[in-house]
């Protein structure tokens, strides 16, 4: 499949990845979380939240391309898959792994491996420096806030049963420590 050139194209590609997969598939779990964040970015790009929407759109596309490339590599030849993605891709059908664990494993691979690459390549391509106080830094921080909000919403969908009880207990203890 061709790489998307717009954020709506990224959304469409993610929908195409997730829709045929079982809800419990690890790749589907991560992709649904990532899709929710990307849809939030898409909504905010249409408004006036971002100071440099051109930069942020390019970063969003470059970032997503790295996930798509990793998934394509795994499907074509698992030996060529970036190592950070292997735990999610290889365990995607294992029983006993909570959907939230799959989503967080994907976030870990994508943020820790792919984000620095996407940031550097986007800044070089557009000739900008991601300096504190810059419009690009502001927009990057805005996406972090969006990610935290979306993660909380998605977590409520993924955390059920005993896992929800443990989560509530842990967060109650955190509040008592404050």
Structure, described:
By secondary structure, the chain is an all-alpha fold. The protein has seven helices and no strands. It has helices at about 5-20, 25-45, 55-75, 85-90, 100-125, 135-160, 160-175. Helix 2 (about 25-45) runs antiparallel to helix 3 (about 55-75). The model has no long low-confidence stretch (mean pLDDT about 85).
Oligomer: single chain
Helix content: over 70%
Radius of gyration: 17 Å
Terminal residue distance = 49 Å
The count of helical stretches stands at 7
Structural class, by secondary structure, is mainly alpha
Mean pLDDT: 86
Order of helices and strands: HHHHHHH
**Low-pLDDT windows of residues:** none
- Global outline: globular
Major β-sheet profile: none
Strand content: under 5%
How many strand elements?
A: 0
Question: How would the blueprint of this fold be written?
Answer:
Layout: H1 7-18, H2 26-46, H3 53-76, H4 86-91, H5 99-126, H6 135-158, H7 161-177
Helix pairs in contact: 1-2, 2-3, 2-5, 2-6, 3-5
